[in-house]
Amino acid sequence: MLSKSVVAVSVVLIMLYCNLFIEVVAIGVNWGSQASHPLPPATVVRLLQANGIRKVKLFEADTKILGALSRSGIQVMVGIPNDLLAPIAASVAVAERWVSQNVSAHVSSNGVDIRYVAVGNEPFLKAFNGTFEDITLPALQNIQSALIKAGLATQVKVTVPLNADVYQSASNLPSDGDFRLEIRDLMISIVKFLSDNQAPFTINIYPFISLYNDPHFPVEFAFFDGTGDPINDNGRVYDNVLDANYDTLVWSLQKNGFGNLSIVVGEVGWPTDGDKNANMQYARRYNQGFMNRQRAGRGTPMRPGPLDAYLFSLIDEDAKSIQPGNFERHWGMFYIDGRPKYQLSLLGNGNGLVPAKDVHHMGKKWCVLAPSASLEDPQLGPSVGYACDHADCTSLGYGSSCGGLDLAQNVSYAFNSYYQVSDQLESACKFPGGISMIVTRDPSFGSCQFKIMIKSDSSGGEASTKMCLTRSAAVLLLLLMCMYIVL
């Protein structure tokens, strides 16, 4: 019969092993804050913890969000927006001040587990016409210098989240990959800097965008079911675009002497609305497929093993720019009120997403087109335009969740969107000529939801800091068990 000490040690070793496994496959998420009525940060932190999410990527250093992440057990990548690159690139003092206020203060005083500083966000997009090409590397260097001065360079690494258009392959085979010619020298300089400082290359990969930009893109190749036509690259077989895209980067790094540089997938996911290919079914299929391969430990032909990745994104952002497309406001796994959109198992235990707790909605009231209003009323067009300019009407587009509404329902949807984003103020449902009215019966139709806004003063409280068993906790438990046995 096993002694108590052997049993105790075995239990702790099993716990440590399980903890190591969780850390290996831990998934991160992007937490954006461009919402008209964001959930309280403490509520979101509890949402992350309840769903076993151990890493989060932020696009800016929001003090309240960082405060809520204090001692939460969640690793953080904190971002620097592109509009701050110029002043940081021009002055080490500005970089030092930014690090002091947004990294050092939270790491030392608040116990925030900051692991990365993301310098800029996709600064070399072709759409930016080279605006940030001369300042990104200097900004990166100055932030690194500031981290060194603060004594944080070992704990906190710098990186630059880049779009996959920084590399290309003339033949579409990964092995022909290399950095885009017009920025190749710059990319090699950045890669060398990252390598010299043991920092990762961060890349955002979006199969949905490939499908959105090219109507002839093979849909099945975007997913992980193996149902698309595979690509054979000298014996390496690719059955999905993520693997092919990722390995195009691997080859680009390898050809330039940096084949061992670590890679972080900063954004990967699928939107649920705002385009004919942005829907719940595709989003669930893509994200669940990605999570299944992560748990199976599957990497790419060039880089076996699960990817270090952040799903995009956690919660919808109804105030985000729609310049790239209406889908930009619908990347979340959760609606803006923290309700899961679809069944998704992140932990592999068969359970779906856990909703946010203690979220309070406004009253069950909607603003709609008055029955007496004429669809030919000259006030109608300007009123709808005004409502959609100040609220979110992106679900009304072709192929979207509300794309099948008739004209009157379209008007009602626009009016209600403005009414809800205006906190259900009575004056927000008084469009000219008496063409609108407030109702208490839900006008939602089919897949089209007429939303009710959450209260902006929702009380989030303090985030729970309960964590899974860590190595240090396990060691402490082992010592206590040993003391018990001895006594």
From TrEMBL:
The keyword Glycoprotein applies. Its EC number is 3.2.1.39. SUPFAM superfamilies: (Trans)glycosidases (SSF51445). Residues 365-450 form the X8 domain. One of its GO terms (cellular component) is side of membrane. Keywords: Cell membrane, Disulfide bond, Glycoprotein, Glycosidase, GPI-anchor, Hydrolase, Lipoprotein, Membrane, Plant defense, Signal, Transmembrane, Transmembrane helix. The chain crosses the membrane at residues 6-29. It is a lipid-anchor; GPI-anchor. GO terms for molecular function: glucan endo-1,3-beta-D-glucosidase activity. Gene3D superfamilies: 1.20.58.1040, Glycosidases. One of its GO terms (biological process) is carbohydrate metabolic process. Pfam families: Glyco_hydro_17, X8. It is found in: Cell membrane. Belongs to the glycosyl hydrolase 17 family. PANTHER family: GLUCAN ENDO-1,3-BETA-GLUCOSIDASE BG1-RELATED-RELATED. This is glucan endo-1,3-beta-D-glucosidase. It comes from Brassica oleracea var. oleracea.
